Amino acid sequence: MHAHIQQRIQGIINNLDQLPSIPDVASKVLTMVNDPDVAFKAIADEISKDQAITTNILKLCNSAYFSKGKEISSIDRAIVTLGIKEVKDIVVVAATREILNKIIVGYDLARGELWKHGIAVAVLSKRIAVLKNQKAIADIAFTGGIIHDVGKTVLALFVQNTFREILDLAQSRQIQFSDAEKEIMGFDHQEIGEKILTKWKFPEVLKSIVRYHHEPQKAPAEYLPIVSIVHIANTLCLMAGVGIGADGLYHELSDAAIKTLGLTNREMEDLYGDMPRVLDQASGIL
Ligand SMILES: [Fe+2]
Ligand SMILES: [Fe+2]
Q: What is the pTM of this model?
């Protein structure tokens, strides 16, 4: 382990200013949606305060993936037509695009690759949730899919300098890339991701998704199904070569996750076989 690298990362975590920020509206809307006493109008007003994000949100509402066919020209309309959960997902897409849609050097991800990967994992996560009768959490699975690798945006710089070492360790010991990350740098991208979500005031369930997406069996019992969904979606996307960076080959599919969701071999094959359609849908959001 490199003590100086660990110290530098610790320094970043301790100084929240150094972690990426998102527009306030995203964390506010996430909290409001989960509060049954909050009126739709209050949420619409909150979103409308941010002009830039409102423009982006309306564009997304009318995109191939989210559109219900009717032109949407206001946030009020969007909530009525698409539903509050869908609008919340759209807010997260609009709020995180800038952070995730860049070059992630250390992981060998070209500009836009991490974003593309996140959106594909989001679309597939939602699909798995619906397939396994977990429709109530499909929106959270979608949000979790988008941001599951957000920690990479911070760790990338350090991974770049230690890349060879991390890869050699993963190879020689046959362990996951993220385990090797932790051993060499003292942190892995899941831990950093969780810190970022804490800064953003995102709810516990999303923090769990980010924290445990490579080891779903360790997630708190109440979040096991949703973490398993994102884990499987992530694995299938990596197998299909979507957002496959340097770490993609060193990733395990958790049997516990498959069992938790009761996914059959047939269903797994169908999901994988349907990847071209998932990617096509995802491209409607990019
Ligand atoms: Fe990851
Ligand atoms: Fe991923």
A: 0.96
